[in-house]
Amino acid sequence: MHLLFNFLFLIAGIIWGDWRNWRKYHSTILFLWFGDLLYNVLCYDFKMWEYKESMFGLNFLPNHTVISLLIMFVAYPSSVLIYLGKFPKKKIKIVFWVLFWVTLFSLVEFINLRYLNLISHHHGWTIWWSVLFNFIIFLMLRLHYKYPIVALLTSIPIVWFFVIYFNVPIDKKAW
After folding, report:
1. Which of 60, 70, 156, 173 is most buried as measured by Cβ atoms within 10 A of its Cβ?
2. Are 64 and 52 in contact (CB under 8 A)?
3. Are 136 and 158 in contact (CB under 8 A)?
4. Single pTM value for the model
5. pLDDT 10s digits, 52-71
């Protein structure tokens, strides 16, 4: 099913993404990748959420890491190219645009969690934390696009909050 979801994101990205100006969004895509990579490193042995495949792609997507890489290389760039490429200028439209993306990502996760068994939550993470996290992500993507250094600096206390709140055992990592 992850193959299907990512295929749909890819098709949406091809149709609605701002491919003509992809270079403008490249560093923001890397910013999103870095955040996901940081999560996967910090939480390697203490996952808040874990992707799994239950239907079609078991041979191609055997574990969380492979599924996460698929999402990073397909769904994230497609989403950023649409989200930033079609970002509105009027404040009320901005609010609805962000709400649309937060709802889309949260709804996909809810369906995957509740009905398709494609993701599981652990260590106190819930769908409501995912909704909040999606708000943070989409606001940070726009912030990074406009003010990259501010977004990077703002990310530090956000990451620190989640590490402390969820007691992620980073002190036990063998760096």
Report:
1. 70
2. yes
3. yes
4. 0.91
5. 987 666 667 878 988 899 99
